[in-house]
Amino acid sequence: MANFVADAQVSGYTVKKGRRRKGTRGKWVSILLFSLLPFLLPPFLFSSSAQNQKAKELYDQSIKLFGQRKANEAIPFMQEAIKRDPNFLDAHLKLGQLYEFTKRFEPAIASYRDAVRLQPDNPATGAAYQSLSNILLRLGRYQEALPYLEKYKSLFPDESVQGKRIGRLIEGARFGQEAVQHPQPVDPKPVSSVLNTTPSQYFPVLTADEQTLVFTALKPEGDEDLYVSSFNGETWSPPISLSSDINTVDNEGTASLSADGRTLVFTACQGRKGFGSCDLYVSRKTGTTWSAPDNLGPTINTRFYESQPSLSADGRRLYFVSDRPGGHGRRDIWRSDIDASGTWGNPVNIGDKVNTPFNEASPFIHANGRSLFFASDGHVGMGGYDLFVADSTSSGWSAPANLGYPINTSEDQASLFVSANGRRAYYSFEEQKDGVSQKSRLYVFDLPESLRERVKPVSFLKGVIADARTQKPLAATVELIDLGTNQVISRVQADEQTGQYTAVLPSGGEYALYVSVPGYLFKSLSFDFTQKTTGEGMALSVPLEPVGAASKETLNNLFFESGRYDLADKSRTELDRLSAFLTANPTVRIEIAGHTDDRGDAAANLTLSQKRAQSVVTYLTKAGIDPSRIKAIGYGKTKPVAPNTSDENRRLNRRIEWRVL
């Protein structure tokens, strides 16, 4: 996986020459720089000096060469100094640091071990313990690292800052050792070689149907742009620039897509006029064209750092990373909701269950709106940044769970994207050679059963909304309502040019789906997913009837007990929707028509259908609708919409319709 997370865009990757990198570069890079600090400190701070004058001269020459950035040339001098004086502790330590700086890790380990063996109890050997254990942790050799960490910790009081820091490393090493012994059953594979058109690709995001993939691409000149590829059911298309209105000569990346692929939020850190070091921008797609990006404004963006956005499936909630004041650590995850007018609310820190005193990064909110995946170097993990998942519950966020090995490794892990149906995960894999990162590629794996059980899958509807008579595409609003709570679960807009829409339906609930546009009768659909445990895609095009004489629709979310005419409480959602329509169209008069199937006595069915229709009229009049505008009539079994030859057809025939008079 990728050895980057916390940079202005992505840690570990270059930006254009001459531009200052912003943010931290990742935990292991910080550790390496810290371990090289002794080169910058006066020699009198170290307790071990050379007993041999020639060794001291060779040592000084090596230090001088390193100061001139000639590390490879410095190594032979330090090696010769040790030959002249094998007990020269600081020379062993410096040689290890030179090897580490040049990424020759095995010789570095040997040098640090030599330093430790010389004076195992001397506090001056602490730097060797630190560097040795850090390299072993970085290489995932937890069992080897633990004895050195424990000895290193014994040199400091338990409650000291250094003692606590080493204690965290010991906890991570023990966790890593256990995780490697109990790996998750995953088999990552490249998404497609056709995507490898640039030196590196990372931060993948997809639409709910997994047919559109957007990712950040690092180009040869060091520019980061957003690229897009489409899946035709068998292969991915060669990636192309997402849009010339979005990509510039500066850097754009770490994007997030709404489930329908028509709202994009991304990060830009240079070039654009913004509020801080990195800002978030939004672009919306109409037809095949992306709009010019808009800065999300001073409520979201500050003079501090904002990056790594994640949109909810319907685009109404935004998670992102910021180091603004008021957080729990260095960089925290925050969220904001957009209101009906399109204004983002004040961001809220999601709390200390998720955020630590250290860094959190790369949030991804699953399409179910509940499962939050993120990277952190503050929670116990295998080293550097690990990936975690936490769930939003009625009492707040659950304790984050580490995703385990080999999803996490000793290297930094970047973002993870989990498909809407909860079956697959997409991420960036850091291809390495001799322990050195070479390039990042997009990989996919089947989510292991332990995570599938945790991630509540969602299904999705997609299709075209059009005028039933002219077939003209309509920019309709599609709303999903939880019938149990009468709360809006999601609200999306169909494309005004194509009428295309995508709406997600979480498992485990009973929902009403409403499709509406001014001047048309609304369409109501009913979905009972209370027993559904898998996610699937469903094609559903929706023709809407314009308001006019004889136009009619079925009220699919009215519920009665068998043989009764009392409206169930969950019918309120539908009735309130019809009441709102009549209020918005004060000249419209309608007929409420009750229908039954063919079972039972015909006369009793006729009476039942009339009483059910009257129950609807009674509710509407109590809601303030003039009784003269609504008429109830019962048709019994006389007007079936399907032959009464199956239970499913009979269910369709038991209905309440409304018709414009």
UniProtKB/TrEMBL annotation:
Gene3D superfamilies, alphabetized: OmpA-like domain (3.30.1330.60), Tetratricopeptide repeat domain (1.25.40.10), TolB, C-terminal domain (2.120.10.30)
Cited InterPro entries: 6-blade_b-propeller_TolB-like, Bact_OuterMem_StrucFunc, CarboxyPept-like_regulatory, OMP_bac, OmpA-like, OmpA-like_sf, TPR-like_helical_dom_sf, TPR_rpt
GO cellular component: cell outer membrane
SUPFAM superfamilies membership: Carboxypeptidase regulatory domain-like, DPP6 N-terminal domain-like, OmpA-like, TPR-like
One Pfam family hit: OmpA
Protein's UniProt keywords contain Flavoprotein: no
Keyword annotations of the record: Cell outer membrane, Membrane, TPR repeat, Transmembrane, Transmembrane helix
Record flagged with keyword Membrane: yes
Subcellular location: Cell outer membrane
Residues passing through the membrane, by range: 28-46
Major location (coarse): membrane
SMART domains the UniProt entry points to: TPR (SM00028)
Extent of the TPR repeats: 89-122, 126-159
Domain OmpA-like residues, every copy: 547-661
Protein name (database record): OmpA/MotB domain protein
Organism expressing this protein natively: Fibrisoma limi BUZ 3
Organism placement in taxonomy: Bacteria, Pseudomonadati, Bacteroidota, Cytophagia, Cytophagales
